[in-house]
Every structure is written in structure tokens, then in C-alpha cells.
């Protein structure tokens, strides 16, 4: 039984070391969530005002532009999937990938060719393992994305939108990311970034808040210099960059929350395992003590019998 006790002690030591690591990762993730939430909140005013500006131009002119114009027969769509560079986040990456697969299936059913753009090593690995073509991939910044990272991701998307479909351009631009709802809830969502669709006088995205309840938003009249089309040309990159940046921040906050939840679960499981192993170790120790006592008593009894025999 002594050997069994040593095995339990080694396992308890190993699990205790793992528990320290998961606890540290849980605390680090918790601190990063707060920072990521602050960035999400700070990015929202700019995104909303930019959307309002686009809405004003769209309602104040009848120009045709890639931001606004629906293709009569859309043939190609770009899909940006945002995952993380690291794992240990429960179902965070698998849920985002599943949402992208469902979107791709819908677009394919509509007869559209799909160009995939991937953010995060996990998404890149998923597509690479299945030998799927990826137009562009971006890694190394998903835990703490900056606006410069968003610009780098948005650049090829903007270029694809601005090109004619016959020249390799796309008719639609979609994004799949994980929306941060709360510390306990993060939801994988897909949204169409371009072309914009308007309902009730405003652009029908999360940033498009401004329509009065039950009515149409009242937009002021504008004069555009040099032209509405030039203004839209200038706003297009800013709009795509802001949407990508917000999605990256939402995804980062969601990933940290998922990591915190997964590491807390791992820590709790380690504590339960340590308790179970401790009970087994105590039982093994008690068995060793009982056996030693039995051996001592047996030895003493045998010695007494031997002395009694010699006295005769």
C-alpha cells in the first residue's frame, strides 16, 4: 500500500500545480475583460456617428455606390470570420466557426461564390486542415486588437468591394464574430456589412440607432461637396474599418470571458479531484497503519509463543 500512497501524493502534487496555473489564467482573463469592455464602449460613439453620416448621405442623394447599391444578381460574397489565436476558451472558437459554416451554406444555396477572410490562428487552422481556400488571413493580435489591426483587416475587404465583380470583386461583405452580451453570455453572430440596408430611415445594423419608435427618423437636408459619391468614397473605408474594429473588440472581450469561465471550471474540477485524491490517500495511509499494527501484533504474538515454548 505504500507504493499506492506515493502514487496518490504525486497526483495530488500534479493537480495542485495545474490548479495554480488555471487560477492564474482565470485572474488574467478577468482583468483583460474589463479592458476590452472599456474599448468596446469607447468605440461605439464614433461608429454610431459614422453610421448616421452614411445614413444622411444615403437619404440626401440618389447616387449609386458600393455602400448602398444592391446587385441585381449578386454572384460573389466575402465572409470575414473572427476567431482567436489561442485556445483554452471552451466553445468560443467552435461556435464562431459553426456560425460561419451556416452562413456559408446559406450563401452557397443562393448561388453565391464565397471568398473567406480569417482572423485568428484557430480559424486559419480549421480551414487549412480541410484544405479550404482562404483569400487573406490575419493572426497575432486577437487578444488585444488595435485600430491599426482593424485597418489591416479591412483593407483587402474594401479593395474587394470597390472592384467590379468581373474583375474579382464582391457584391456583398459579411462578418462573423462573437458578440459580448455579458460576463456569462457571448453569442456568435453574422451580419452583413455591405451593402447597407435601410429600414425606418436608418441603417439596420446595431449601430443604426436613431429612428423614432413607430416612425421614420427625420434626417436634415445636406449639400455635399464636391459630390455625394465622393463623400461616400471617403466614408466607405472609415465605415468598414469601424465595423471591423468593433467586431474585433467584441470578439476579444468574448474570448477573455470564455477563457475565464473555462479556467474557473478547470480550477473547480481540480479542487474536486484534489479532495477525492486526498480521501483516497488518507484511506491508503490508514490501510498502511492498520497493516503495520497487524504485523506488530502478529510479530509480538509469535515471539510470545516462541518464548512460551522455550520455557517448557
The averaged pLDDT comes out at 84
Number of β-strand runs: 7
The major β-sheet equals: 5 strands, mixed
- Spans of 5+ residues with little confidence (pLDDT < 50)? 204-219
Give the overall form.
Answer: elongated
- Strand order of the biggest β-sheet: 3-2-1-4-5
Class from helix and strand fractions? alpha/beta
Order of helices and strands: HEHEHEHEEEEH
Q: Helical percent range?
A: 55-70%
Number of helices: 5
Distance between the termini: 39 Å
Q: How much strand?
A: 5-15%
Structural features, described:
The protein has 312 residues and is an alpha/beta fold. Helix 1 packs antiparallel against helix 5 and helix 4 (147-162) crosses helix 5 (228-311). Residues 204-219 have low confidence and may be disordered. The protein has 5 helices and 7 strands, in the order H-E-H-E-H-E-H-E-E-E-E-H. It is elongated and about 125 Å long. The strands form 2 sheets. The chain has a 5-stranded mixed sheet, with helices on both faces. Strands 6-7 form a two-stranded antiparallel sheet. The chain has helices at residues 2-60, 92-109, 121-129, 147-162, 228-311, and strands at 76-82, 113-119, 136-138, 172-180, 186-194, 198-199, 202-203. Strand 6 (198-199) and strand 7 (202-203) form a beta hairpin.
Amino acid at each position: 500500500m505504500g507504493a499506492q500512497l506515493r502514487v496518490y501524493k504525486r497526483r495530488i502534487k500534479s493537480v495542485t500545480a495545474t490548479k495554480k496555473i488555471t487560477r492564474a489564467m482565470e485572474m488574467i482573463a478577468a482583468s483583460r475583460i474589463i479592458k476590452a469592455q472599456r474599448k468596446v464602449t469607447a468605440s461605439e460613439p464614433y461608429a454610431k456617428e459614422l453610421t448616421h453620416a452614411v445614413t444622411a448621405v444615403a437619404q440626401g442623394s440618389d447616387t449609386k455606390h458600393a455602400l448602398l447599391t444592391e446587385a441585381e444578381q449578386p454572384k460573389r460574397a466575402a465572409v470575414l470570420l473572427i476567431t482567436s489565436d489561442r485556445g483554452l476558451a471552451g466553445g468560443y472558437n467552435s461556435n464562431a466557426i459553426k456560425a460561419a459554416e451556416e452562413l456559408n451554406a446559406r450563401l452557397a444555396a443562393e448561388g453565391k461564390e464565397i471568398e473567406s477572410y480569417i482572423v485568428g490562428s484557430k480559424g486559419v487552422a480549421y480551414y487549412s486542415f480541410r484544405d479550404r481556400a482562404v483569400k487573406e488571413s490575419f493572426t497575432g493580435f486577437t487578444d488585444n486588437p488595435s485600430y491599426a489591426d482593424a485597418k489591416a483587416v479591412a483593407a483587402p475587404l474594401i479593395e474587394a468591394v470597390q472592384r467590379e465583380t468581373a474583375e474579382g470583386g464582391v457584391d456583398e461583405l459579411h462578418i462573423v464574430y462573437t458578440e459580448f452580451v455579458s460576463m456569462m453570455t457571448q453569442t456568435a453572430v453574422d451580419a452583413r456589412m455591405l451593402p447597407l440596408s435601410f429600414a425606418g430611415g436608418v441603417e439596420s445594423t446595431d449601430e443604426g440607432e436613431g429612428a423614432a419608435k413607430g416612425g421614420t427618423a427625420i434626417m436634415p437636408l445636406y449639400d455635399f461637396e464636391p459630390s455625394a459619391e465622393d463623400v461616400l468614397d471617403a466614408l466607405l473605408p472609415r465605415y468598414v474599418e469601424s465595423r471591423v474594429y468593433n467586431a474585433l473588440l467584441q470578439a476579444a472581450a468574448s474570448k477573455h470571458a470564455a477563457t475565464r469561465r473555462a479556467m474557473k471550471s478547470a480550477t473547480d474540477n481540480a479542487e474536486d479531484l484534489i479532495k477525492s485524491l486526498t480521501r483516497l490517500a488518507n484511506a491508503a495511509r490508514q490501510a498502511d497503519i492498520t497493516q503495520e499494527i497487524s504485523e506488530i501484533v502478529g510479530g509480538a504474538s509469535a515471539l510470545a509463543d516462541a518464548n512460551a515454548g522455550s520455557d517448557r
